[in-house]
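Quick bug: Membrane protein output formatted oddly.
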Amino acid sequence: MEPRTSRPVPDRPDAREDGSAPSARGVIPAFDEELERSLGRGRRRRVGAIALTAVVFLLAAAAFAGIGAVVLHSELLGGVPSAHAGPTTAVPDDGGADGASRPRGKTEPSATPSRRTERGPYIPRRGTGEFTRPKGAKKTVGSGRLMRYMVEVEGGLGQDPAEFARTVDRILAHPRGWTARGKVAFRRVDRGPYDFVVRLASPGTVDKLCAAYGLDTEGEVNCAGGKEVVVNLRRWLLLNPYYQGRPDEYRALVINHEVGHRLGYGHATCPGKGRPAPVMQQQIFGLKGCVPNPWPYDRKGRFITGPAVP
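Here's what came back:
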């Protein structure tokens, strides 16, 4: 069966965010200091870019003013300025005194290839707004209450919908996942009734989808509301500070945390220093002394939890 396309249809507001407190009425909770700093970096970068542009403009204006003065002086003397008449002020192409490089256009070649910085992953601000749904899987994993889910990927992201679906499948079928105790089973479908849908979307589309549940994601974080688990492409590729270099584990945390809410689990916090963080802990806000952990159960099949968070 060919992949299906669908348009997002907001469900009943019942929103939670990856790193936000649950809110049955769709009201976004206050971010804590850690996430505020993370989101604030985007604002500071925008202000810094504006200031840098102003400085470059002023330096360029000063350079042109100096050149104009030389030309005027030469014309008054009846001559033509020499190419070696003297030094002039110039704005460097690849960084100033601090060695920082200014961004280049995508098609502009570097004058010094050895200094070219490696490009990051492709993260468009907005995708097409339409989603592709891969063909469902025939296999049911786990036993107990059956949860049917769909997987969708927004167009224009450069991401393979079938590969993303397989990643979600692997996470939900993991021995330390939600099926470990035989209470729940999962099956991916592409039509008919479903219990939740996992969507991979661009930052701009995430903002739009999450706004329907009263969540302000600022192009930075994931969210969940109603039957939707909305995964931000930025977080999926760049991870969070506690999982750098561990993409598989971070992605498992995102899926398991939000699916945990769909299963009725609330937030928990760290049970003790050095112990694994519960998957239902808001780990993006800090580990509180625990160590990173993306799974609901440990290797002995014991549920990893801690004190409930009101």
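Actually, after a second look the formatting is fine. The beta strands are 4-6, 15-17, 131-133, 141-142, 145-154, 184-188, 196-201, 223-225, 228-232. Closing.
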